[in-house]
Q: What sequence folds into this?
């Protein structure tokens, strides 16, 4: 009996074990892959690594463009449970009509955006509604905390952080980075365990050559000039003439890059590099340096301009005032058109063209901003009979303000053509310098002697008797040139009698130039001359900038000293 | 006889000890594993907190940048607190610090030394 019981018991136990083993084999061998995948689905969650664009800094490390994490509202149409009252409240929070909100909710599908990148307070209010089927996703929003400041340099991005203008566009590939996906473990209630992976990937940072204070000074003075002369537009650039570093670049009108998508196209134009103008007398740098370099003239060479006009190709070009006999220095100082054309005739069309090309006219400067144009100047074979009377005085040529500034910087720095740039270096997210934009292209275009001689001639422009006296700065010597040019009427294709471009370009201090500045005012009302409209703007910018940079005065008048113990 | 009884005692103790260590080991492993998972939960919560603080930090940085802009400083302080660019007429000379000043209460070591 006992033996029989034992046998039955053993059989049952063995049978049970076999059943369990078979079940185990089924679960762990036959259905292993399917169940493992299902478990993985339940235990694992895939999240995107959040990608952030690099920050843009000015040269002193002040942030000009950065990222904010904002909530974007989406809905799951299948599970959405919202009545009309909820939709009304939601619409009021995002300042839209209820109909506009309803139009964003499709009939099918599991995902649809309602509103992107909400302010935190708005997101909180919407959360408070507790509407089923609505959810939030964190997205990066590019923010320009200083508004219109340096907008033409920085540029802006679109709603999906795609670069559209300025440095954002030019250096897009450095500032953005690839993301990725991270697998996170989660429990039954959805809580995630740590992955040990950094959930944010950042692009490289850009450090500009721009100085915030200098940029603000320039923008303020441009605003004042626009208001005073009721001008259509204005541009100003400040550059280190020795290195090509752009310290400030401003245009008016400007726009707010935080609302770049809705700004006017004309407000977004970076006129300093995209707009061409006939430079007028500032172009006399070409015949000035060319004739000195070719040793055709010296500062004391005499020119009889007493007739007040000169005929070239059947057309008479006149001086604004009648002069007698002028030295070459005075021809430039008083901006005599007749004298300049005489010098141009000595130089000849081939050499005028060559020196213009040497000084960088007719080609792009290579600045690291998008949209630069090269300007134009006809080759000598295409010059008409009147060209020799027009080109030396800055007509029948088209330049950008930056090209003009670069040419004068060549005189300021002893004869080298620099490459203007707005980016100083690129930093990794960890702060290491990845690339530095040192100027490698310093081409000598005129001799040091010519540069020095012409510099002294330009200095006389801002002294008594010169057209640019209003550009003189208290305490330092300024060298520069005024320009007043008629604009071409696009309808009649002739020079307009009402619309002018007033400009002044120069550098300070003369001996060791720290700043080269150009100011261009388009269509000023009431006055037209560069010496009256643009030169005072140059003076104000230069005076304040020299103070900010603590550039020593070159005179000792009224100087007191204060001794301070360290 | 005594040696034989000693060996027997050892053998007698071995079994329960072995079972004890086995059970202790298993429970120890389970305890370690659960602690590890608890730590991962904490890290996960901390990471979430970190992301929230980073979000807040970015907001504050943007606010700070706006407030510290030169334009804002200029606008708010130019009248009242003399916020202005340096006067280049004033020349400031920095001198090295003087070693001993007459009004110091204590003497320096060099002054205490015999002349």
A:
């Amino acid at each position: 009996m006992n033996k029989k019981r034992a046998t039955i018991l053993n059989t049952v136990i063995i049978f049970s074990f076999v059943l369990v083993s078979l079940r185990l084999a089924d679960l762990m061998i036959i259905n292993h892959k399917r169940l493992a995948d299902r478990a993985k689905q339940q235990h694992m969650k895939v999240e995107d690594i959040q990608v952030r664009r690099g920050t843009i800094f000015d040269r002193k490390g002040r942030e000009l463009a950065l990222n904010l994490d904002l909530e974007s509202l989406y809905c799951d149409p299948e599970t959405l449970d919202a009545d009309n009252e909820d939709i009304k409240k939601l619409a009021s929070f995002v300042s839209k009509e209820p109909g506009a909100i309803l139009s964003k909710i499709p009939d099918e599908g599991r995902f649809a955006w309602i509103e992107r990148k909400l302010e935190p307070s708005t997101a909180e209010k919407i959360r408070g509604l507790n509407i089923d089927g609505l959810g939030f996703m964190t997205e990066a929003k590019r923010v320009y905390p200083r508004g219109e400041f340096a907008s033409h340099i920085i540029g802006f991005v679109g709603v999906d952080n795609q670069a559209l203008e300025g440095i954002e566009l030019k250096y897009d590939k450095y500032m953005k980075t690839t993301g990725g996906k991270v697998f996170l473990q989660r429990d039954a209630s959805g809580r995630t365990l740590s992955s040990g992976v950094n959930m944010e990937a950042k692009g490289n940072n850009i450090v500009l050559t721009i100085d915030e204070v200098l940029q603000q000074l320039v923008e303020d003075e441009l605003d004042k000039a626009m208001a005073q002369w009721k001008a259509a537009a204005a541009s100003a650039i400040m550059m280190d003439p020795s290195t090509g570093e752009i310290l400030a670049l401003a245009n008016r009108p400007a726009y707010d890059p935080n609302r770049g998508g809705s700004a006017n196209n004309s407000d977004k134009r970076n006129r300093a590099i995209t707009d061409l103008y006939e430079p007028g007398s500032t172009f006399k740098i070409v015949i000035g340096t060319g004739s000195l370099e070719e040793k055709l003239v010296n500062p004391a060479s005499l020119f009889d301009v007493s007739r007040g006009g000169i005929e070239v190709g059947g057309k008479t070009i006149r001086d604004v005032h009648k002069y007698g006999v002028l030295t070459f220095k005075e021809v430039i100082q008083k901006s005599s058109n007749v004298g300049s054309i005489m010098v141009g005739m000595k130089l000849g069309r081939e050499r005028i063209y060559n020196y213009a090309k040497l000084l960088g006219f007719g080609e792009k400067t290579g600045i690291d901003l998008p949209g630069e144009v090269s300007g134009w100047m006809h080759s000598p074979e295409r010059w008409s009979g009147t060209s020799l009377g027009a080109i030396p005085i800055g007509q029948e040529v088209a330049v950008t303000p930056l090209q003009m500034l670069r040419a004068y910087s060549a005189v300021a720095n002893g004869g080298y053509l620099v490459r203007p740039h707005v980016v100083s270096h690129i930093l990794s997210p960890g702060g290491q310098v990845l690339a530095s934009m040192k100027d490698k292209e310093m081409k000598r275009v005129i001799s040091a002697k010519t540069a020095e001689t012409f510099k002294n001639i330009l200095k006389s422009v801002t002294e008594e008797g010169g057209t640019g006296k209003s550009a003189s700065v208290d305490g330092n010597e300024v060298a520069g040139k005024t320009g007043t040019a008629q604009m071409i009427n696009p309808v009649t294709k002739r020079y307009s009698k009402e619309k002018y471009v007033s400009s002044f370009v120069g550098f300070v201090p003369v001996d060791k130039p720290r700043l080269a500045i150009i100011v261009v005012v388009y269509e000023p009302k009431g006055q037209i001359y560069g010496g009256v409209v643009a030169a005072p703007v140059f003076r104000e910018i230069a005076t304040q900038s020299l103070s900010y940079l603590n550039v020593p005065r070159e005179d000792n008048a009224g100087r007191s000293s204060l001794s301070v113990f360290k | 006889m005594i040696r034989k009884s000693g060996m027997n005692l050892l053998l007698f103790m071995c079994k329960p000890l072995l079972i004890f260590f086995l059970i202790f080991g298993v429970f120890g492993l389970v305890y370690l594993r659960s602690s590890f998972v608890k730590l991962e939960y904490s890290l996960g919560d901390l990471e979430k907190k970190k992301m929230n603080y980073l979000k807040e930090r970015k907001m504050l940085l943007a606010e700070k940048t706006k407030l510290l802009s030169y334009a804002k400083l200029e606008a708010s302080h130019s009248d009242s607190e003399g916020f202005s660019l340096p006067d280049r007429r004033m020349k400031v000379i920095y001198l090295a610090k003087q070693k001993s000043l007459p009004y110091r209460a204590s003497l320096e070591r060099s002054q205490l030394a015999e002349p």
Remarks:
- Chain B is about 70% helix and 5% strand.
